[in-house]
């Protein structure tokens, strides 16, 4: 078996036009978003205007990170100390972290084998509690049936905030991820779909919500310098009632993102070609279960997940170890100890321990990997062949 020599953490270079734009900002010395000259909108406001148009939203706020975006969205919705916020039992730590940041309590919802929210468990938990909202994590780019979800939430009067860190550019039945609830929260961290190192975006069609979010982000009284903000009269009382929790994006990062937004749809096609090649190969391997993608879902395949439902912990560890020896980095969400970015709900001690038998059974056999655009299609074929090889070896050893 030919080892793989590529890097699973190596991103493509920042585009040359983005580098030039960033150099222009640095030469100006005006990195702060509100440090603009007369008649100039500025890179952050330009990004807000452009991303609102891309998303099809009325309003957009650029901020420091995806985690900050989620915490700010919760605060702008009025979530506070002691409130219950529903979220996925399978997500990454910044999601329950955002809930903890506002003093609320996370109530975790089971997932299905397709790695999306279990709507039956969600409804049962809504009826058993009085949740302030659902913070939906579109974890690893998988969308649940968004129309069925919204019907359920509307019946029960539960507002929705979407964590779209992994679904920037994705859609359900043609409607963009992040446009179903009160707000969508996006990340521009290095490993997401646009790269500014760190960064976040919040979109919404609700003017009062967005006015609160803008004030929370640290606009002082400069909200009229935003690119996609509500009209000034919406801020009249909100500007005095809302605390400043500074989390502004700067002009340098926005200058890197604007050119990348223009290339986003092209890059989505490139990601999906790589994702689908891996998925098609591994669907044919005994012992591997690839989650289904409904035809209503337009996804962004920047990562790949598969299940080994019949494997025990020893077999899972063997697959991870042997894949790594051949150059393929797989993350196992069923591990007892969190590794790198990967953790599960049992290691979030800031969240009350909860019983999630279905989710735990799924995570016990779940493996995940990044698909950076630095991989060629030939690289992806090599990676898929290595995974197939080590899985087959592990299962043969287990049957022996």
CATH architecture heading of the largest domain: 3-Layer(aba) Sandwich
Percentage of residues in strands: 5-15%
Question: The CATH topology of the largest domain, please?
Answer: Aspartate Aminotransferase, domain 2
Distance between the termini: 22 Å
**Unreliable residue stretches:** none
Which class do the helix and strand fractions yield?
alpha/beta
Domain module count? 2
Number of helices: 13
- Portion of residues in helices? 25-40%
- Sheet with the most strands: spatial strand order: 1-9-8-5-4-2-3
**Main sheet summary:** 7 strands, mixed
Q: Would you tell me the overall average pLDDT?
A: 96
- SSE topology string: HHEHEHEHEHEEEEEHHHHEEHEHEH
CATH uppermost class of the largest domain: Alpha Beta
How would you name the CATH homologous superfamily of the largest domain? Type I PLP-dependent aspartate aminotransferase-like (Major domain)
Question: What is the 3D form?
Answer: globular
